[in-house]
Amino acid sequence: MSAVLPQGPAAWHEPDDGKRWPVATLAALLLEIALIAAVAWWSSRPAPPPPPPPIQIVLEAPKPAPKTVAPPVPKPPEPKPIPKPVVKPQPKPIVHNVRPKPVQPPPPQPAPEPTPKVQAPPAPAPDTHPAMPVAAPTPPAPPPPPAPPAPDVASIKATFEAELRSAIQAAVHYPQAARLMQLTGKTLVGFDFRDGVASNLRVVTSSGADLLDKAAMDAVRNAPYPATPKELQGKTLAFTIWVRFHLSDS
């Protein structure tokens, strides 16, 4: 009869042990791969450059300043001995025995002559005759009046020409036929003038209408001219004057 050995307690197994094992294996594998990649990356890095050699700074002790040697002071020259002045013996004065001369009295001066008295001449007797009247000096003649300025002939002629133009324009007789035909314009008439008489009449610039040109010539011929200025009298003057025709003129 075989004896039955008592069995010990069975090992404890959790129900998820079969699932934890692959997870742990996978985590260990990933950790190993990460370590291998880190080692490979670290070995592939270029070696860092060596550090620069240390700079050696040598401090030299300051050199002592060179001693300046003062130049030798020259000795002052020895003064020359001053020669003693030689004193010459003065000669003894010679004494002469001089006798004093006798003093003579001054000669007597002559007495002054008396000064003659000068008598003044007698005063002249007063003139009893009446004095002759003295003619008064003739006053100088007054200076002549200044000559009048020379007349400005050009200015006088321009003023007289304006008066002629007004007289001619006032003497214009507008032709009735030209008024009916509504003719307007201006005619430049040239003429010679001497002492109130117009001559050598001519049309310099036509108005384009014979009726107006003939009326302009008649106005120059029949105008009552003003008096000729004294500066222009006796002279033949040439004038050219515009004669205008407007329907508004009477």
UniProtKB/TrEMBL annotation:
- Does the keyword field hold Transport? yes
Query: Carries keyword Protein transport?
Result: yes
Under Pfam families, the record lists: TonB_C
Which GO annotations describe the biological process of this protein? Answer: protein transport; transmembrane transport
Which GO molecular function entries does the Swiss-Prot or TrEMBL record give?
A: energy transducer activity
Question: What keywords are assigned to this protein?
Answer: Cell inner membrane, Cell membrane, Membrane, Protein transport, Transmembrane, Transmembrane helix, Transport
PROSITE patterns per UniProt = TONB_CTD
Q: Name one GO cellular component term.
A: plasma membrane protein complex
Tell me where in or outside the cell this protein is found. Answer: Cell inner membrane
The record's section on InterPro entries has:
TonB-dependent_transducer, TonB/TolA_C, TonB_C
Q: Which residues form the TonB C-terminal domain?
A: 159-250
Subcellular location, principal: membrane
Mind telling me which residue stretches traverse the membrane in this protein?
21-42
Membrane-protein topology: Single-pass membrane protein
Composition bias (Pro residues) maps to 63-92, 102-127, 136-151
Where are the stretches annotated Disordered?
48-153
Q: Which domain of life is it from?
A: Bacteria
> Which family does this protein fall into?
Belongs to the TonB family.
Protein name (Swiss-Prot/TrEMBL): TonB family C-terminal domain
Organism source for this protein? Thiomonas bhubaneswarensis
